[in-house]
Design goal:
Elements (H helix, E strand, L loop, with lengths): L1 H23 L4 H31 L6 H8 L3 H27 L6 H29 L4
Helix pairs in contact: 1-5, 2-4, 4-5
């Protein structure tokens, strides 16, 4: 059960968040400014997260803690790398959508923005999941 929660948790939470947004938030003149602010903010957040995650890609093979050795010996290393790839690609998707909307006026349609909210939530929650796992692997109890 924990495995399925860990694996599918970010996508399920993102679906519920997008569903909640779609049925509770109404796009009007006041929310257009907040949407523009969110798009600009997500460029910064996604860029920072991508930098952090790309740094992890370069150093993850050099980690030699007891827990990391256990992960490699138990065959769980590919799963860890899949979680990292999900973070990278979801943040890259959010960054591309945010930048594209800055240059090309995609418009503020409720359905389109709900899809964007889903992508943002998926990127953030999957990044939190990977960061938690990575910090747990890095931290060695004395």
């Amino acid at each position: 059960m924990v495995y399925y929660l860990e694996k599918y948790g970010p996508i399920v939470l993102s679906i519920f968040g997008a569903y909640y947004y779609y049925y509770t938030i109404i796009i009007d003149e006041n929310s257009i400014d907040r949407i523009s602010t969110l798009l600009n903010l997500m460029v910064t957040i996604s860029s920072t997260l991508l930098g952090f995650l790309l740094t992890i890609v370069t150093i993850i093979n050099t980690i030699s803690t007891r827990r990391m050795k256990f992960i490699k010996e138990a065959g769980e290393y590919p799963k860890l790398m899949r979680y990292l790839n999900v973070c990278l690609y979801s943040n890259l998707l959010v960054l591309c959508i945010s930048v594209a909307n800055s240059f090309i006026s995609i418009g503020y349609n409720q359905v389109k923005f709900t899809g964007y909210i889903f992508c943002v939530l998926w990127a953030i929650i999957s990044s939190i999941r990977f960061t938690y796992i990575f910090v747990t692997v890095m931290h060695e109890k004395e």
